[in-house]
Design brief:
This protein is α+β, with helices and mostly antiparallel strands.
Length: 904
């Protein structure tokens, strides 16, 4: 571009004077360039590596409004408080006057006509007071004259985007906007760097998050990222957390950005070398010194060269370090020192649905459950005094914990758990030694209180034994009724009042489903405990793990049955070549539509997929977490497993048959050694455990479906909030508070009044902070100081965990971080290595050689299903996903609980 356009005054109204090359804008302020362009220009002038760019100034935008007459129309629309969408349409539909278009394209030609990123640069953007980050539009990977002109109008129109309007609500009119046209960096690695820890606030720490591909994947939260901390004095890396990275954001076709897979060799490797991190940190320190204030910097790397894409002041003040480091107890309210320091907390075996880190929405929904449901669940067990529900659960660094001490105290009212040890020992991992533990709540009062509680429990238990089969049948029927009803409804057509009534209905079903489920869960748990103790007492060594081998055939477990049913759908697809062709060759997100359009595919869908989804579709990973789609919402995982199963020759019936035959044979042989009366007692206990387990799995689907129903309403609210600009995207539903959603539906406040942008951003920051912390322990007493957590040695090759399913195999490891994207990669016989599993992972167990998890216990999902499929399993290794790489040859010993890498 001719440099004179940046320095030489042009005739009044001349478009050429209103386009400037960044880096040649001395004396030109944010009122002309907008915040983003002004700062990029300053960085270029300071000699920092910023991709070349030019700016269409606010004056050019104002000239466009004048010459097209749109300025008067927009002012009139703003005066009558018109919908922002109306203004956006006026701009995007308007024709660029020929002199303006010619000027823009001339600047593009002078840049060399590369592929470019077209970015909005509003006047108040990237200021010290408000960042406006993400409020205005960016169009990536633009090429060609017409596409460039269209992208410019999109950026101009985004001054009136719903989210920008919500962000500046009450702070004045929209003002004007500039646009940056910058050479597109097709990044190998991208990320953000904060020159101050935005959450922890510890000094001298530069915080770096890095992902494969374009940074948009990181900003939207759709990809995994590596986390680094660099000391700003020495530029040395002092902390590193490398995550397994499955997907990245990248150009899929000219002008089309989307998700694709990370190359296998890059998945468990750091995005940046320590040398590259040092260079990046040095640039960040230069930027901070240039501005004299802390900075939030976006960067990208291509072919080993670093580029700075944006820098803005850090507009939020980190919390007091003492407050952050002081989060050591799951209690939400102040307790006495004895209670605070003596409580036993556990997240072992609490229904699988609470496993793992939860979003702010998931945590707030769990708290709703605690306040409104959990106490009634205790009452359903025959507990007369259900105590203080606020003490029964706790929340620690994004995880849900059960207060074992208080629960054991309350269950002291019930005969089987009068001795608290019967309950407590089921929830303790090897991190905790119970020898010195004393319940700070003591034991439940004796005397008349004890007598009344015992009589109450006996009556409740007798009623439960009589009615449990009938109630399970009613729960199964009501589940299908509510499921079918929900699929017929169109929530998008409901008023807010109608949606509120629907949520009330679903929460009522949620309550009843959980209360109805709890007795089956606890009774199965109790009979399993009795079985364990009797086997140990009467059978000695012969009884070791017998209780795990004779828990009835696996078809009684709904989670295992779902894998069998997936296999059945795969066999049906394999019998229809046209159907299998569509499933194998279509993009995952297009399979459903293509099947429904094809006559043979539609018949297959109706005959096979619909019945499967009706029976299993409300399953998903981490089911109490509302942000995770269920199989019926996104059947991609099911299609992945159909591909995998259809390509494999092993029959799931054969696997199940072998497991069942082994269990039955072992059970009969051992039981025959017992005297008749002992054999009869054990057979009765086994029978009751089997019955309760079967009813538990049947009614569990009611519980899971009730959560899906609630999720549907929450996401309908989320869609409305996106439309109003309160949320940037549906991804931000994760940062809502469940009680805010309920209040909004029940009240008259507008969307912008009901949901605070500042609170959403604060929840996001806290969630990101929790996400980068080491995994908290399964169980601990009192408080846990995360700063004392010990990281594994970098060269360790041996892991000791809990052997939860017997057997010893050698196989290639595969780290699985994302089920949907990796199900098709998993090969039969490979060792599944992951952080944890829940019911949605079951279909992979049918083809796994072994299972290794970071967390878990003998009764966690991965352990139970591994035993049912006769697959060796080691759980609670703590660091397997960090110490083992995909492709490593590993030995998994499910008897000793040892996992060893024997060949890298």
């Amino acid at each position: 571009m001719d440099t004179r356009t940046a320095h030489t005054p042009a005739p009044a109204g001349s478009p050429s004077s209103l386009v400037v090359v960044l880096g040649r804008t001395s004396g030109t302020g944010t009122g002309t360039l907008g915040g983003k362009a002004a700062r990029l220009s300053e960085l270029i002038e300071a000699g920092l590596p910023v991709p070349p760019a030019f700016c269409l100034t606010t004056g050019l935008f104002d000239l466009f409004l004048r010459e097209t007459g749109l300025g008067a129309e927009i002012r009139a629309a703003e005066a009558r408080d018109a919908d922002p969408g109306t203004i956006r349409e006026l701009i995007t539909a308007g024709e660029l006057p020929e002199p303006l278009a010619r000027t823009i394209l001339a600047a593009y030609a002078d840049l060399g006509r590369p592929r470019v990123a077209v970015r909005s640069s509003a006047c108040r953007e990237d200021s010290a007071a408000q960042s406006f980050a993400g409020q205005h539009d960016t169009v990536l990977d633009v090429s060609g004259d017409q596409d460039l002109l269209a992208a410019v109008k999109v950026c101009w129109a985004s001054l009136w985007s719903d989210r920008a309007a919500a962000y500046r609500d009450g702070t004045g009119p929209a003002g004007s906007i500039a646009v940056v046209v910058q050479e597109m960096i097709q990044a190998d690695v991208s990320g953000v760097l904060f020159t101050v820890d935005p959450v922890g606030a510890r000094p001298n720490r530069l915080v770096v998050e890095a992902c494969c591909g374009l940074g948009e994947g990181l900003v939207s939260g759709r990809v995994s990222s590596d986390f680094f901390v660099v000391d700003d004095r020495t530029l040395e890396v002092i902390e590193e957390h490398v995550r397994y990275k499955v997907t990245k954001c990248a150009p899929l076709a000219p002008g089309r950005i989307g998700m694709t897979k990370v190359d296998a060799a890059d998945r468990d490797a750091p995005c940046l070398t320590r040398e590259q991190l040092g260079v990046l940190a040095g640039l960040a320190v230069e930027v901070r010194e240039h501005y004299g204030t802390e900075q939030d910097i976006e960067w990208a790397m291509r072919d080993g060269t670093l580029h700075l894409l944006q820098a803005r002041p850090v507009t939020t003040r980190p919390p007091d370090p003492a407050a952050t480091d002081g989060e050591r107890s799951p209690y939400l309210t102040r307790q006495s020192d004895a209670v605070r320091h003596g409580t036993l907390w556990s997240r072992m075996d609490i229904g699988e649905i609470f496993v793992g880190l939860m979003s702010p929405l998931g945590l707030s929904f769990a708290q709703y459950y605690q306040r409104n449901v959990h106490g009634d669940c205790a009452a359903a067990l025959g507990v007369r005094d259900t105590g203080d529900v606020g003490l029964q659960m706790g929340f620690f660094q994004g995880h849900v914990y059960l207060n074992i001490s208080y629960t054991a105290y309350l269950l002291g009212q019930c005969l089987p758990t009068r001795d608290q040890r019967h309950f407590t020992k089921r929830f303790v991992s090897e991190e905790v030694d119970l020898a010195a533990y004393r319940n700070p709540f003591g034991t439940f009062p004796g005397g008349m209180e004890d007598l009344l509680s015992t009589v109450h429990w006996v009556r409740a238990t007798a009623t439960e034994m009589v009615s449990m089969k009938h109630r399970a049948g009613e729960m199964a029927g009501s589940r299908l009724y509510e499921f079918d009803r929900a699929r017929r409804l169109d929530l998008t057509r409901m008023s807010r009042r109608e949606l509120d009534a629907e949520l009330g209905r679903y929460l009522g079903f949620f309550h009843d489903a959980h209360v109805g489920y709890m007795p089956y869960y606890i009774n199965a748990f109790g009979f399993y405990g009795v079985l364990t103790e009797l086997c140990a007492k009467w059978l000695g060594a012969d009884g070791e793990n017998l209780q795990n081998r004779i828990k009835t055939d696996m078809s009684s477990l709904r989670t295992v049955a779902s894998a069998q049913e997936v296999w059945g759908v795969a066999r049906a697809a394999k019998a229809r070549p046209r159907v299998l062709e569509i499933i194998n060759e279509s993009p995952l997100d297009e399979i459903e539509e293509r099947l429904r359009r094809d006559p043979e595919g539609r018949a297959f869908w109706d005959a096979q997929v619909e019945p499967f989804l009706r029976a299993n579709g409300t399953r998903g990973r981490q089911e109490m977490e509302l942000t995770h789609p269920r199989w019926i919402d996104d059947p991609s995982y099911i299609f992945q497993m159909i591909r995998r199963y259809a390509a494999d020759g092993i029959s799931v019936d054969d696997i199940m048959g072998r497991s069942r035959a082994r269990a039955e044979g072992d059970g009969r042989a051992v039981l025959e050694k017992l005297p008749p009366h002992q054999r009869k007692v054990l057979e009765t206990v086994i029978s009751m455990y089997s019955l309760c387990s079967e009813l538990r799995e049947t009614t569990r689907m009611s519980m899971i479906t009730s959560i899906w129903l609630v999720r549907n309403v929450v996401y309908e609210v989320g869609r409305r909030l996106v439309a109003e600009g309160v949320l940037h995207s549906l991804d931000e539903v994760a940062f809502l508070e469940f009680e805010d959603v309920r209040s909004y539906l029940a009240g008259g406040a507008t969307e912008r009044e009901a949901f605070s942008r500042a609170e959403l951003d604060e929840r996001r920051r806290l969630h990101e902070y929790h996400n980068r912390l080491p995994e908290p322990p399964l169980t601990f007493v009192g408080e846990h100081d995360i700063t004392l957590a010990v990281r594994p040695a970098a060269d360790g090759t041996r892991l000791e965990g809990l052997g939860s399913s017997p057997g010893r195999i050698v196989g290639r490891a595969r780290i699985v971080e994302d089920l949907v994207w990796q199900a098709d990669e998993f090969q039969p016989g490979e060792v599944l290595v992951t952080r944890y599993t829940d019911a949605s992972w079951t279909p992979l167990f049918a083809i796994a050689g072994a299972v290794v998890t970071d967390i878990g216990s003998m009764l966690s999902h991965s352990s139970i299903v591994s035993r049912e499929f006769n697959v060796p399993s080691v759980v609670n290794t703590k660091h397997a996903t960090q110490r083992i790489n995909t492709g490593d040859m590993v030995v998994v010993d499910g008897d000793t609980g040892v996992v060893e890498v024997v060949e890298g």
